[in-house]
Specification:
globular; about 450 residues; seven-stranded mixed β-sheet; alpha+beta
């Protein structure tokens, strides 16, 4: 395979023109403000909370290893125990299959508007605790028929930013009786015209990418099998097809070996966490307009005032996590006996309920210290292995703009030469595309960053 293999991927699609039109017309205004200018949020001695007690809070967290406090790991986290609904509605079959897109405006998005799921709502939002407008099409995800359900799973948010946060990722299929009311920001598009923009920068938001990759992929393609349109055409598309069709008994790790390998990492990651007051955080300072770390490149928590005619309420203010440092998320792949495999690294993150999930091979984000030094050493070795690899794909995406302010990472796929040896430590595993689809719907299996990166491959469906 040649580097940057975008062969067969259409460009300049109608979906992009529609999104650009909404970006031009978006009237959202975002202004950074000091804490004391907020009309809705305040510090209660322990955390930063909304006046209603709903939505989310910003709290302090401390990690312990063998009951010893790890003060260098202290940090604020977003505490949002509500399970939000992220869902796409699809209709039709074959080449005429369509997906209902939402031009979702968020204050922290690059470009303000990105493609979101048909419904993207927290429980506080869809229960209208803000006393705003109803969430369109919500009923299709709260009162669905079992026969219409394509996929339904709980997926995690970033364990370095959220405290044990999950969202319900869903896709439902509707028929001609679907009551489509033009909301201006919702529009039907052919799936075959939509999926290719997964390989465009800043087009599809994090939530949409998570819903797509955790779904049943055959429901997103008009072909008999995912990636089959590339059979016999070479390049990354055909490599994905063969990887998807690898039998279990020919895989590097059998299906029933992969979850126990992750459980082993979870047992080895023997740390606990404790909620503490924001004022108790070591190496963090709270000024008039932000919370920030006193050392190193780290994220900050700042307050923003937002005005928009497109949202459930027209004006509000809220905290957002911000970072000026661009992150890097890398997945290494390698062909073994003609089959393409992907190398995942079990990541111990302070906000994961399970302690560990399978993440990308290499990940560098602002204020992301390793809990265990041996994992840091492992990643150093993986960076050495990556030298000389071919970059097959590379895209820039921003984190979800309702909680993050213009936080950007580059997501890339690198192909190792076949003769490169990777020391397969306990925290690493090889998976093919069939196994990735099999395990992605499982709760707490793949990290948010891993799912975002893997979603790029669905452009080849």
């Amino acid at each position: 395979m040649e580097p940057i293999d975008y062969s067969g991927i259409p460009r300049n699609l109608p979906t992009q023109a529609w999104l650009e039109a909404h970006r031009r017309d978006c009237d959202m205004q975002v202004e950074e403000i000091p804490w004391n200018a907020s009309k809705e949020w305040s510090f209660d001695g322990h955390g930063l909370r909304h006046r209603t007690g709903g939505f989310f809070a910003v709290v302090g967290i401390r990690a312990y290893i063998d009951e010893v406090a790890q003060y260098q790991l202290d940090q604020p986290l977003i505490d949002q125990p509500e399970i939000g609904i992220l869902g796409f509605i699809i209709r039709g079959q074959g080449d005429e299959a369509e997906i209902l897109l939402h031009a979702k405006a968020e204050p922290g998005n690059i470009g303000l508007v990105q493609v979101g799921p048909s419904v993207q709502a927290t429980e506080s939002n869809y229960k209208r605790r803000h006393e705003g407008k109803k969430t369109p099409y919500l009923a299709y995800f709260l009162n669905f028929k079992e026969s219409s359900l394509v996929s339904d799973s709980l997926q995690s948010e970033q364990g370095t930013r959220f405290l044990g946060k999950y969202n319900r990722n869903m896709i439902v299929q509707v028929d001609d009786s679907f009551d489509f009311t033009d909301t201006e920001v919702h529009q039907w598009f052919l799936l075959k015209d939509f999926l290719p923009i997964l390989l465009q920068d800043f087009q599809i938001n994090t939530d949409a990418r998570s819903v797509l990759v955790s779904s049943r992929w055959s429901a997103l393609t008009s072909n008999e099998k995912p990636f089959s349109r590339y059979f016999g055409k070479g390049g990354l598309g055909e490599a994905l097809y063969h990887s998807y069709n690898t039998p279990n008994d020919q895989s590097i790790f059998a299906d029933d070996e992969i979850m126990p390998r992750l459980e082993k990492s979870r047992i080895a990651a023997d740390f606990t966490t404790q909620l503490i007051g924001l004022s108790e955080l070591k190496n963090w300072v709270h000024t008039d307009d932000r919370m920030s770390a006193t050392e190193g490149n780290a994220f900050e928590v700042r307050q923003f005032r937002v005005k928009s005619s497109e949202r459930e309420v027209t004006k509000w203010d809220q905290p957002l996590v911000a970072s000026d440092e661009e992150g890097s998320v890398i997945l290494l792949a390698q062909e073994k006996d003609g089959v393409l495999y992907f190398l995942f690294n079990s990541r111990a993150e302070i906000g994961f309920r399970e302690r560990c999930q399978w993440g990308p091979t290499i990940q560098n984000l602002a204020q992301e210290p390793f809990i265990f030094s041996d994992l840091a050493d492992s990643e150093i070795e993986l960076k050495k292995v990556m030298n000389g690899s071919k970059q097959l794909l590379s895209q820039r995406h921003s984190d979800e703009g309702g909680r993050f302010y213009r936080c950007v990472s580059t997501y890339s796929l690198h192909l190792l030469n076949e003769d490169v040896e990777v020391a397969l430590t306990d925290n690493l595993v090889w998976m093919n595309m069939r196994q990735i689809e099999l395990f992605t719907p499982q709760k707490g299996f793949f990290t948010n960053e891993a799912r975002s990166l893997l979603s790029m491959l669905l452009a080849y469906l």
